[in-house]
Structures are given as C-alpha cells and as structure tokens.
Amino acid sequence: MTIDDYTLSDRYTQEQTTSFLSGVQALARLPLEQLMADKNNGLNTAAFVSGYPGSPLGGYGDEVDRATSINADLPLRHIPAINEEHAATAVMGSQLATTRADALHQGVVGVWYGKAPGLERASDAIRHAVLAGTGAYGGVVALVGDDPGAKSSTVPSNSTDILAALRIPVLVPGDPAALLELGRHAISMSRAAGLWASVRVVADVADGTSSVQLDASQHHPVSPERPANLLAPTGRVISPFNLELERELIEVRLPIALDYIRLNKLNRVTAGNDQSEVGIIASGNTHRQVHEALKRLGMQSNDDIAGNGIRILEMAVTYPVDTSTIKEFSHGLSELIIIEEKQPIVETAVRDILSGAANSPRIIGKSVHHADPIAPHHGTLDTGTITSALRSRLSERLGDHLAPAAPQQIHHIELTVERSPFFCSGCPHNSSTVVPEGSVVGAGIGCHTMVMLGEPGRGGDIVGVTAMGNEGSLWIGMEDFVSTNHMIQNIGDGTYFHSGQLAITSAVAAGSHMTFKLLYNGAVSMTGGQTPSGQLSPAAVSANLLRQGVTRVIVTTDDTNRHNDWPTEVDVWHRSRLIEAQEVLAATPGVTVLIHDQPCAAELRRDRKRGRAVTPTDRIVIDHRICEGCGDCGRTSNCLSVQAFDTPWGRKTRIDQNSCNLDQSCVDGDCPSFIAVDTEPSLFARLTSRMFDRNGIATHQTSTEIPPTEPPTPTASTHRDDLAIRLTGVGGTGVVTVAQVIGTAAMLDGWSVQGIDQIGLSQKAGPVVSDIRLSRSGAVQASRLGQGDADVLIALDNLVAAGANGLGVISPTTMVVGSSTETPTASMIAHPELHLPNSDDIENTLGDATDSTKQLWADAAQITTRFLGDATTANVFVVGMAVQIGALPISLDSLSEAIRVNGAAVEANLTALRLGRLYAVGQLNIDAPSSTTAEVELPDDVIGRCADDVKAHSSTRASRRFLDTVQLVRDIDPDPSLELTTSVAIHLHQLMTYKDEYEVARLIATGDGAGASDSIADGRGVRYRLLHPPILAAMGVKRKLRFGPGWIPMFKLLRRARVLRGTPLDIFGYARVRKIERSLPGEYLELVDAITTSVSTLPYTRLVELARLPDVIRGYEELKESRVEIFRTQRTAALAELK
Questions:
Q1: Sheet holding 767-775, edge to edge
Q2: Distance of alpha carbon 30 from its chain centroid, rounded?
Q3: What percent of the chain is modeled with pLDDT above 70?
Q4: What letter does residue 720 receive in the DSSP assignment?
Q5: Which uninterrupted H or E stretch holds 325?
Q6: Which of 251, 550, 724, 742 is deepest in the core (most CB within 10 A)?
Q7: SS (H, E, C) 553-569
Q8: Residue partners of 290: CB distance under 8 A and separation at least 6
C-alpha cells in the first residue's frame, strides 16, 4: 500500500489491507468481514444488527450505517431499536428466519449491541433468545459495552457475571485487532454450538485505536462437529419444550463451546516456559497492562519474563473457563496470581478447578481468603496499580532482580480552576434545566444529567438520578413521606422513547403530583447525536400524554412557529416563560408535563454546516466599554461561549465567535452592552449605517498574509523503536481527530500504532486525553500511558496539561509542545472573577520537570485566527510545531495525506500545519496583540486614562476632583509600585463614571468598545444595539429592542444632555439605582480617607485590598443594587477595622 492509495473507507471495503481504526470501527467491520468470508466460501448469508447506543459503544450504530452505505452489495441490515430488549428479540428473530421454508438465506449473522445497563434490562429477552438457539450458518454475537470506571455511566460495570448467568460465553479482547479476531471466533463458536456468544468491550478497548492488518480470509477456525440432533433455532420457548431447551443448553451447547475454545487455543500462554514457578492469569486490556507492569519491573521482553520464572496466560474467554487449559497452565507452578477487574469471576472458577488437586499452586487473587487482595474489587485497573501489586508479590522471590521503583516526581501547579464536563454552547439544557427557586428536582439520563455537576442550586434541589426509564418513580416512593408536595422530573426525549413513557404512565397511575420536564432536542446527544428510534413529533407526544391522563401540557420553545399541529389543549409559550410555565404546572393537581422543544446545539451546528438548517444572519458581540463584567449574561445563558477576559478597563465579557452556536440567550442578561451584527443587511441598512454610524464596522482584513517561504525539512529528534505520545485538550475541539491524524500518518510511515482516546463525559468541554504509542519493535504494550511514560507531551490545552493528565506522565526527558491559548472553564461562566492559572507558570513548571531545551509554546488560537480567520485549525498548528522540532518522527508526506483522507477543511489544516512549522523556526511574523487586551500600564498612564474618561463622562471639574483625590493618596503611598494609588484611581473612576443613560449613549456614539464587531462578516455587516431602557421596562416592555444606525444621532443628542445629570430636569436621575450611584463616590472617599490615615498601622497588602472593595459593584439595575449592598457591608467592616 502506498500513501496515495489509502482511504478511510478501506477499513470497510477492502478484504485485505492495513488500516488505522478504533475499537468501535473494528466492531463495525465485523459483520461485513464475516459476510465477505462467507461469500468467498460459497455461503449465502446475510447480517442483522440491532441494539441501543450507549458508551463505550455510543457511535457503533453510526459506524455500521457508514460501513453499510459503502457496501451496498452486502446484505447487511441495521435497525436501531427503541430499547435493548426489543433489539434482543429482533436478533432472536433473525435466527428463526432461516428455519422457515421461505428463507432467503442459509444463515443470518445476528449482532446485538448495548452497554451494561442495557444488557441487564434486556436479560429476560436475551434469556429467551439464548434458549431459542442460533443457526449453523448464522450465529449471534452480543457486543456488550462495559464502563468499569463509570466515565459515561451512572454505575460502574463488569458484565461477565450477568453474561455467565445467561449462559453466554464471554470473549474479552484487548485491542481493535483482537476485537475482530475474537469477534469472528464468537460468530464461529455460536454457529458451532447453537449458542449466543458475547464480546465484552471495555471503554479502553472501544476507544482504543490501532493499525491493524485486515484480512477477511485469515480466520480459519477449528469447529467441533455440530451434533445432528442439535435442535434448530425455535421460538417455542414454552413448557414442555423449554425444559428440553434448557437441558440441551447446559449439557450439549455449552460443552461444544468449551470444545471450540480448546480446539482454537483461544486462551494462550503469552510468556514463560515449563520451568516457570509463578503464573499470572489476566484477560483483554488487563493482560496488556500486566506485560507493561512487568516492563516497569525490569522485564523488557518475554525472555526476561521467562528468565524470572514467570508464565502468563491470556484468558481470552472468561466464561466458560476451560478446565484443561487451567490445569495445563498451572502444572509446575508454586503460585498462581489472577488479576481481573471487580468481582473475582475467573478466580472463583480456577479455585473450583484446582480445588483438591495434587500439587496445585497457591492461588493469589481477591477472594475472602486473602486480607490483602492482589487488585481492588472496585474501580478500574491501571498499569500503576498492577505494577505495585506485582512488585509486592514478587519482591520476596525476585529481590534485586526487580527494577527499583521510579522516584515519585512531584510537580505541582496551583490550579484556581479545572476543566469539567459541561453543556455545549447554545445547548437547550443551559436554560431548560433552570427551575423556580426551591424546586425539588429529579435528574434524568442524558446530557442534562450534567446539571448535577454544574453551579449548585441552578438546577434545583436535586434528589438524585435513577436508571434509564425510571425517571419520576423516585417521587412515587418519596412523596407520602416528605412535606414537599411537588417534584420536577427531567427526562430526555431519547429516554422517553426508549422506556420513559411508562414512567409517566406509572406516575399517573400512582396519583402523584409532579411535573415531568420532557427535554425534546431531537437527538440522543450523549452517545453521538442519533435520532431516537420511534421518534414522534412534540405535538404527537403531547397528544399521547393527554390521552394517558396527564392533566396539563405546556410547551416552551425557542421558536413558537416550528410546529403548527399542537392539540388545542396544549399551550405553546416562548422559552423566556420557562419559569412561569413550571410555576403554573406546579400549581396544577396531578401529573403535568412541560415539553421544552429546542434542537440539540451540536446537531444544529452540524446541520448548518451541511446546509440542512438555516444559519441566523445575526452574530452577537459585546461592547466591552459598556460591559460591567458582572457575569449576568453568563448566569442567564449558562453558555461556554460567554467568556471573561481582561482589558485596560478591567474584567469584561466577550462572546467567543468560534464556539458560539447563535443561541442568543446571552442577550437576556440585564445589560445594554450587546450588539447584534447583521451579516446580510439590506441595502437600506448599509446606507443608513454609512450615513450615521461613522464609528461603525469598517472594512476589516480577517487574515494576515501567509509567508510564501517553505520551512526546512524537519529532522526527528529521536530514532527510538518505541515512542509514547500524550495529547491533552478540551472536549469538542478536535483532540481525538488530531490523534487519529497522527496515528494514520504514523501507520503510513510504517509504524505499528496503538492508542486510546480517554473521553467519556469529557467530550462535553471537559479534559480529553489521547495516548499514542508508536513501535517498530512489535512489543506488547498497554495503550494508556502511566507515570513517566510520555516521550512527547502535546498540550493542546495547557490547563489540562497542568493537571494530573499531563504532569502524571512526564519525565525529565519528555519533549513538550503546546498551545498557551487561554480557554475559560465552565466554572468561570457564572464566576467571571475567577482566573485561569498563569500560562508562564504552567510552562515553567512543565519545563522544570521535562527537557526544557525541547519545549515550544505558542498562542495557537490567536495565530490561526490571525492568519486563517478562526481558531478551528489551532490543534493542527501545534502538530506542525511538534513535527518541525522533531518531536513527532513522522514524514510530512504521510501527515499531509492523513489530513487529506480525514477530509475536513483540508486546505485550512494543511496551511495550519505549515504555519506551525514556520513558527517553530521563527519564520512567522506575529503582530502585536489587540488593543483590547490588558497590558501592564505605568501608574501615571492609568491615572491619566481614568482622568480623561471622567472628563468625558462628566466635566473638567469632575476630572480635577478625581486627580486631586488620587494625588492625596499618592503623597502618602509608601510603596514604590504605587499599587495603592493605582487601586484608588481605578475604583474611584469606576464609581464616578457610572453608566446611566447619558453615559451609555456616549459610549454607543463613540463606539470605542465595539471593536469586536469589526471582524464579523468581514466588515460588511450592520450593527444594532440591543437595549432595554429602564423607562421602557417600567412601562411593561419585557424584551430588548433593536436600535440600528439611524438612532446614532439620538444617542449623540442624549450624550449632550448629560449636563442635566443630577439636576431637577434629570428625568433618569429619580430612579433608585441612580440615586445610589450618585452617593457611592462619597461613600468610597470616606473609606479612602480612613485608608490614608492607616498607612502606618496596617499591612500595605491589606490597604490595597480595602481600596479594591468597590470591585464587587458590577452590573445594572437590580443586580447592581444587590452588589452595592455587599460593598456597603464590607465597607462598614473596613471602617471599623481602620479606626
């Protein structure tokens, strides 16, 4: 295969090829590969796939659809089911089809998929299907997604015991290649034994990636002869037939499965010899971790393992356990160590097999016989845990032969904030999960579950979360025993169609008083954005609910015209009335339902890119001079695109245009700083803008010219046979895609590649980690990196790199390449006063702990925005830096081809790659940052700027008063930094230039803070001010109004009217908030006087803190009044302290 021959579709279309694919993609190939092999063997077979998406198999159905679409000649049918039990019964039907006279195929390969909770809820249906049996040319494999660490689940899981109870053999692969190999064996075993087989897929394997040599014809199983009297698949699972089926299952089919396991040597010895004294048994990914742990103990090869008297058995099948294999493996051993996740299933079977046997080894595991288990019964296993366990067990036997434990390196960065999962920008749940104050709430399954991780109280008094489909049933058991008489229950539309409909019926039948809040966003977003199976329109759902006995239904929506077929009994309100709707329903007896109808933001964004949805022409920006940095727009919208940043005028807020999903809920914040930029204005609007908005949007160059020079060809800094790379970044920014590009490029260069994308809930703005191992030695390796393993750290987000995900894997030889771009966290939305850690501190700490001579950082987002117009290619820019300094030993040809085959924004990403390379060699000219960015100013500059602004706000006399006060403080300021003087100047200016109607008009007319709008629509847009004047609010106007360029003369006129401020003719000055604002400078001056008299008695830092007390006064109207109360309370305490 040459570089130019490779395409992503090869993994699904080619019978023989080498491809880079994930575990989920390997499973999507499985039924196709079986059909290819059957066709080559002259069999007329088909395949049927059904299940329900759930992490770690969330994207499996989508991959099957993708694979099927490009293999139209293969008879594969995928039908996503409403829920897991329906899917299981459908798969049962696929086996019965070939027993009929009108069958179209000799056999149908059945594939069921679901996560552990789905297996448990479908166990009755699966038990029926197992008894019914499978066809000789069909077979069934159940793909069970296990999430031992509960990264994307409510409960941690190991499904082996459930599968064993259902009499289903359990095959446990450790990487994508093994998924295909054991998946093929599962089908063959099922065909031979007439028995369902399963493949247990843990998150590390499903999310793992690997370069795999694919060959549909390489599978040559040795199958036991299927008994002639083995019953054909039957649907007659009823007495007396079911007893015979049960007998056959236990006495015939399971023994055949054991024969198959033995004949095909599925459980293999992977290291050791006949002289070994210590045996280790492990399965799947844990087996890989055992090998990695032994490497850390000094055993770098299988010869080293054997030389230290150790033998390893990879148990590919954990149920049923083959007696002969265990006896053969344990022969001659004095000690047998069994390492497995959670409950000791294999250990129990091994103990039963070896119990009473002569010369049997001592078994070390986690049973009750040992106070110190070899591995914990809970959580996940990792290489570090296994290394410590084996060191403890083997030290007495091997002593100095074990490599010493690596010293624990302590690298610490004080993190003021950390990344956590959160809703996407524009997500309906940002607003739909808000409830009236004091509401008791039940959380539900779906993205909206993250309300439990958000700002305390925002989502109500949350009592807990239940299993999917049981939403609301908690309240049935609670309501008679608590004084609260009503609960709001969140339920997603995916859950509703899966099983949640019955939960509402149960509540009606129980006579409960509660409101179900049905969050209808049209997608199962947590698992990849699939359309819920069996989906009905919101109008049809509301009609069904009323027929079920629901007493009232109210719909809240962002678009009241989206549907026009609502039942007459249903009220349809704009989403701005969400709180009111919940209050009305809470006062309505019985079970009520609020349907919040708003599309999933992530899916809406995709639909807009594909032209399937209209993109709004308005873009929202914030005038940073009018903005108070109060955070009200963030609290109102709960949106990640509403971001705090520092300016010369203090902490302000901006809208990140790259991530903004045009939801516009932020404009509901009580603030006059919002600007709507119409990117497709009418001719009249453009002419009006040119006539009146002289400070309006000028023609703006969105990108800087890219240098035509080509950087020198990079040279790899290392020529090792094995290289470990860790990428750290933020969920939703393309980290996984970059890892796939690097992995694909490395494969094209001839490397053997293994990797893992550690995502889970982190795909929603949380920390994402991708590990990539490149090897030319072919050694068995665990995909996940451990302490000190990383040769290269690519920090696509420096905050994630500053935590355990980065610091935990580096060593003094690690090379670091990263982006210093500051991306706010979820906690900063409602708390704009929080700051990210200083980038220099992060870089210095990482530099101290790694090879600081091979460290390179850049503000990748700023640079790519400067040259390419946005920051979507920032990650590839960083990859370009890494390649150029030799951190990634991958050829440019392969990397460029990997970008091309990925197919997304190819030219932009190739350009970003070159820009990163240019930056790395100093050939990229980076202009000075924007003037809105806060830079260090000298005290005189700050004082002069503030004095000029006071003059523009009020008068020359006011400016003189300001300067006189500041000078008095300066005269007694004992510190050369003049920090006290500067603080007084900043906050006296803040209070003297309060933003009343005159001041807002002035700032609008000058347009000084509207620079963020210049880059919108390449300068061709027209901007509209979104205002809600208090005088109109008092008249009952509830929404902000748009004031276009034609209003500029009126704002200028109002600006001139500032001479009326504080006089009897000041019609705005009679408002309570204006009276408060006029009193604040005097109150602050009293505090300043007290501070100046205490210079010699209090620490200087404390005096500065007291001078900064007015910083809490932010916002407009009621919010400002509440902040003033806080200031006054603090001021009173400060005056008492200063006496």
A1: 16-22, 208-215, 752-758, 767-775, 722-730, 792-795, 815-819, 855-858
A2: 28
A3: 94
A4: -
A5: helix 323-330
A6: 742
A7: EEEEECCCCCCCCCCCC
A8: 280, 282, 312, 339, 386, 390
E strands within 195-334? 197-202, 208-215, 268-271, 278-282, 310-314, 317-319
- As a three-state string, the secondary structure of 159-197 is CHHHHHHCCCCEECCCCHHHHHHHHHHHHHHHHHHCCCE
Report how far residue 837's alpha carbon sits from residue 847's, in angstroms, rounded to the nearest whole number.
16
* Identity of the residue numbered 562: R
Report the chain's mean pLDDT, rounded to a whole number: 90
Residue 494 · residue 519 · CB < 8 Å: no
Q: How many CB atoms lie within 10 A of CB 48?
A: 23
Q: Provide the greatest CA pair distance for the chain.
A: 107
Report all structural domains of the chain as residue ranges with CATH numbers, in order of start. 11-263 (3.40.50.970), 269-401 (3.40.50.920), 429-599 (3.40.50.970), 722-920 (3.40.920.10), 939-1012+1050-1138 (no CATH)
pLDDT at 146: 92
**For 265-279, 449-463, 721-735, 853-867, which range has the lowest pLDDT when averaged over its residues?**
449-463
Give the tokens for residue 980.
């006290």
Residue 526, pLDDT score: 62
Report the predicted TM-score, pTM, of the whole model to 2 decimal places: 0.90
Distance CA(713)–CA(891), nearest Å, equals 9
* CA pair distance 392, 375, nearest whole angstrom: 12
For residue 49 the two structure tokens come to: 């796939």
**CA–CA dist 431, 635 (Å, integer):** 10
Length of the chain: 1139
Q: Which of 1088, 1085, 1072 is nearest to 1125 (CA)?
A: 1072
Q: Which amino acid is at 1102?
A: R
Sign, CA torsion 343/346/347/353 = positive
Amino acid at 93: G
Question: Per-residue confidence at 731, pLDDT binned at 50, 70, 90?
Answer: confident
Tokens of 331: 């022969």
